[in-house]
Amino acid sequence: MATKTCIFTVFTFISLFSLHFSQSVDFNFPAVFNFGDSNSDTGGLISSGIESLNPPNGQNYFHNPSGRYCDGRLITDFLMDAMELPFLNAYLDSIGTPSFRKGCNFAAAGSTILPATATSVSPFSFGVQVSQFLRFKARVLELLAKGKKLAKYLPTEEFFDKGLYMFDVGQNDIAGAFYSKTLDQIIASIPLILVEFETGIKRLYDNGARNFWIHNTGPVGCLTQNVLRFGTDPSKLDELGCVSKHNQAARLFNLQLHALSKKLEGQFSDANVTYVDIYTIKSNLIANYTKYGFEQPIMACCGYGGPPLNYDFRIACGQTKILNGTSVTAKGCADSSDYISWDGIHYTEAANQFVSSQILTGKYSDPPFSDKMPFLLKLKF
Question: Is 335 a catalytic residue?
Answer without folding.
Answer: no
